[in-house]
Design goal:
Elements lengths: L3 H12 L1 H10 L1 H10 L12 E5 L3 H17 L4 E6 L2 H11 L4 E3 L5 H11 L3 E5 L5 H9 L4 E6 L3 H9 L1 H9 L3 E4 L2 H9 L7 E3 L3 H5 L10 H6 L7 E7 L3 H14 L5 E6 L5 H10 L3 E4 L20 E4 L6 H7 L2 E4 L12 H5 L4 E3 L7 H9 L3 E3 L3 H12 L2 H16 L4 H15 L8
Parallel strand pairs: 1-2, 1-4, 2-3, 4-5, 5-6, 6-7, 8-9, 8-12, 9-11, 10-11, 12-13, 13-14
Helix pairs in contact: 4-5, 6-7, 7-9, 13-18, 17-19
């Protein structure tokens, strides 16, 4: 039977129908995942107990990986299934766990959620950071499936939205079996949303544990050649959003005009935007070079095409961001000069690279403050300050190296959240029914 939440969603869907249809028409990846998100889900085979871990996109999937590894070490008799919302998150999850363990997260209508429950038969559900959906929570409660939040985080903006919809969402938060959060501020926000104090604990930031401190896979020679002279400082714009690529192009152009040579690699957050980014490079009077024209990731690569100098490499592939970070002198963190909340500042810092970001870093508030206090990052308010920050790091290689090392050491001292989190959640796994069926 439809739930009250279904009626609310249906009403919102009717109001937003023109936008929904336009999105389906413009975004082939949305059309390709529609059936899966409507609950067309491959069943989980066997009768072993299973834990369903959900991470929205790449960042949450990568953070979940260390949780999955430690969980499987503790519970080798359990299955693990990972769901994601975005296509990039799905690709990252497949790369980490294999296609058999990865599904798409359903739309929060009761029908799709019930079908996914029937297919996956989870004994427990772990939600990375947040992702509290009313139907998911109420239908899990009917089946007596415990749901917990891992690495819990609620931004100030999200807190305001949840409070506006309190009658709809507070019952969902009250149903959480456990909530392991990043810090005291997050604990206060989850309490304000209805989580019971005895089900909440500050366990730290799991993403610190998820960081790899090992060197990434080297880039193919053809890619290195396309990036230009390795003696010239390199800026990597990581996970950039619209308008940020243009900002970095202006910054680099200005620095070159002032006599500070530098190279630039742009890695848009969404690879399908690569052609748009390449057009922006062209408009800035520089030559765009698409990474996909240089061979497949991990391969030997092809000889880069003849080009005018200076060139800007635009990365339209997945899975090489850390490799580009490793080649950089300093890194710009995408999603931070617009009110998005910032992308992952931990990966470049773990590789010993200083970072520059804009004012909007709510998604990584604790990590960026840690790096700033260590002298490994600059958070700046506008374009001129971005140029000044990069000038600071690019003019002196020793200064950039010392800043990067300080950031890496600061991160090394913050690890251990994964173990604390799973210790806290252990009663859930011990008491879970092996394979809950239909209610």
């Amino acid at each position: 039977m439809p739930t009250a939440h279904d009626l609310v969603y249906a009403g919102a869907g009717l109001v937003g129908l023109p936008w929904i249809l336009a999105r389906l028409a413009r975004r082939p990846e949305v059309r390709a995942t529609l059936r899966s998100k409507l609950g067309d889900c491959r069943p989980r085979p066997g009768e072993r107990p299973g834990v369903w871990i959900h991470g929205v996109s790449v960042g949450e999937v990568l953070a979940a990986k260390i949780v999955v590894v430690e969980f499987m070490r503790r519970h080798p008799d359990w299955d693990v299934i990972c769901t994601t919302t975005t296509t990039t998150g799905h690709a990252a999850a497949v790369q980490s766990y294999g296609a058999d363990r990865v599904r798409y997260f359903p739309y929060d209508f009761s029908g799709p959620v019930e079908r996914v429950f029937d297919a996956l038969r989870p004994a427990a559900i772990l939600l990375m950071e947040l992702e509290i959906w009313p139907n998911l929570m109420s239908l899990a409660a009917r089946r007596r499936i415990p749901v917990a939040v891992v690495n819990g985080r609620v931004t100030a903006r999200a807190l305001g939205r949840y409070r506006l919809a309190a009658p709809l969402v507070q019952p969902a938060f009250r149903r959480l079996a456990a909530c392991a959060v990043q810090n005291g501020t997050m604990a206060e926000r989850f309490l304000a949303l209805g989580v019971s104090p005895d089900r909440l604990r500050v366990t730290g930031h799991v993403k610190f544990d998820a960081l790899s401190l090992d060197p990434p896979r080297p880039l193919p020679p053809a890619v290195l050649d396309a990036m230009g002279d390795p003696a010239v400082p390199l800026i990597v714009g990581g996970s950039t959003h619209p308008t940020e690529e243009e900002l970095l192009l202006r910054v680099v152009k200005r620095m070159r005009e002032e006599g500070l040579p530098c190279r630039l690699v742009l890695v848009p957050r969404h690879p399908p935007r690569a052609k748009e980014v390449a057009a922006a490079v062209q408009s800035a009077g520089m030559t765009p070079i698409l990474r996909s024209n240089l061979g497949a990731p991990g391969g030997e690569g092809q000889t880069p095409p003849a080009r005018a100098i200076p060139g800007v490499l635009v990365v339209d592939t997945i899975g090489e961001l850390r490799s580009f970070y490793a080649e950089s002198t300093a890194v710009y963190i995408g999603g931070s000069m617009i009110p998005h909340g910032g992308q992952n500042c931990l990966e470049p810092a773990a590789l010993g690279k200083p970072v520059v970001c804009g004012p909007y870093m709510a998604n990584f508030e604790d990590p960026i403050e840690l790096l700033i206090s260590a002298g490994a990052a600059f958070r700046v308010p506008h374009e001129k300050a971005v140029a000044d920050a990069f000038t600071h790091f690019l003019k002196d290689a020793r200064l950039a190296g010392a800043a990067g090392l300080a950031g890496r050491m600061a991160l090394e001292h913050t690890r251990g959240a994964t173990s604390k989190t799973l210790d806290f959640l252990e009663p859930i796994f011990q008491n879970a029914a092996p394979c809950p069926g239909r209610r």
